[in-house]
Amino acid sequence: MVFVLGSVLLCSPLAAASLSEPSLPSVTPSFVFGERLVYDISWAGLTVGEGVLESQSGERFNGRDVFRVVSTATSNEWLSVFFPVNDRVESIIDAKGLYPYKITVDQRHGFRKRYKEVQFDQEEHTALMRFKGRTSKFEIPPQAQDILSCLYYFRTVPNLAAGSSVFIDVHESKKNYKLEVQILGSETLRTAIGTVPTIKVRAIVLFDGLLWNKGDLYLWVTDDARRIPVRMSGKVAIGSVTATLTRVEPSRLLPVP
């Protein structure tokens, strides 16, 4: 289970400067570097594991200012007896344009293990994938996102109008996808961090490999500048899985009531 989701970009996106320009951040992130979000993962009403999303800054990659996002998902003691899960996904993202340069996926699902690495050349519009000892090269759209960078880009989007659809180019599993996200409207949720107003969206996911299968994926983010994901829900092979926010660390980063 990869604890991430492909998310959304407005049709009139935030401007990203040329890659040849000085690497000084021009986009003010809605998220905070050093933020750690902790989630309970449940299936069929049972808690089966924990997911964590973390953002880290202060790095350089190929001469650019970048930040690193780390997503982990681990099964709890009960599920590990039957089906151990241990996932770690890292994405290195340009601090100015908010597009990825590299993603690594390290998964264990039961007895199945998988490791892959994809490097994004955002100047040549290519992706170089290393998987099972082989290297493959693919063409990608300009500023293509990966399955983890999308979520953090989405959190910088200033306006989400109910009833509209927005799109984002995602490269995953050797293919390019046009991900459609429908803005469904506002909804107030009672959560572990309080009762908060949220924006509910539905993403039409066309690729496997996430916590969820292909199909509709629902996401609730706080209706404020932070856009904190408080709940995610989607179908799996049997039933559905929900990830519910339980902690924001440090606690000072909690949304203002």
What would you say about this model in short?
The chain is mainly beta and 257 residues long.
Low-confidence stretches: 4-27
Question: What topology, given as strand order, has the largest sheet?
Answer: 8-7-6-5-4-3-2-1-14-13-12-11-10-9
Compute the CA-based radius of gyration.
Answer: 17 Å
Strand residue content: over 45%
How would you explain this protein's 3D organization?
With 257 residues, the protein is mainly beta. The chain has one domain (36-245). Helices cover 5% and strands 54% of the residues. It has two helices and 14 strands. The protein has helices at 77-82, 149-154; strands at residues 36-43, 46-61, 64-75, 86-94, 100-109, 112-121, 126-131, 134-139, 165-172, 175-191, 194-205, 215-222, 229-235, 240-249. A 14-stranded antiparallel β-sheet has the order 8-7-6-5-4-3-2-1-14-13-12-11-10-9. The radius of gyration is 17 Å and the shape is globular. Mean pLDDT is 83; it is low at 4-27.
Fold topology:
Blueprint (H helix, E strand, L loop, with lengths): L35 E8 L2 E16 L2 E12 L1 H6 L3 E9 L5 E10 L2 E10 L4 E6 L2 E6 L9 H6 L10 E8 L2 E17 L2 E12 L9 E8 L6 E7 L4 E10 L8
Antiparallel strand pairs: 1-2, 1-14, 2-3, 3-4, 4-5, 5-6, 6-7, 7-8, 9-10, 10-11, 11-12, 12-13, 13-14
Descriptors for this entry?
single chain; 257 residues; mainly beta; 14-stranded antiparallel β-sheet
